[in-house]
Design goal:
The chain has a domain at 29-73. It has two helices and two strands, in the order αββα. The N and C termini lie far apart (71 Å). By secondary structure, it is mostly helical. The protein has helices spanning 29-44, 59-73; strands at residues 48-49, 54-55.
């Protein structure tokens, strides 16, 4: 009696739905650069915010400042969440 060699095929799930154009938030390449610059300032301890020039204390705050600067320059950035 010989046993048959059974091979199991791995089944990978493929996403059945494709994302449409308006399905997810889209950021412009320039906004990425603005956030990158602001994070660089934050890591060096040079990032400041607002009129009072208070020191930025969190990463999230630095990212928000970078996106805000991108919006002011007219770079493609989604609207603020409300």
């Amino acid at each position: 009696m010989t046993k048959k060699a059974t091979t199991k095929k791995r089944v990978t799930k493929k996403s059945t739905t494709k994302r449409g154009k308006g399905q997810h938030t889209q950021y412009g390449k320039g906004s990425q650069n603005e956030v990158k610059k602001e994070m660089h300032r934050f890591k060096r301890g040079k990032a400041v915010s607002g009129r009072g020039k208070t020191k930025v204390k969190s990463r999230k705050q630095a990212i928000a400042i970078g996106l805000s600067k991108a919006r002011k320059k007219g770079i493609k950035v989604p609207k603020k969440a409300k």
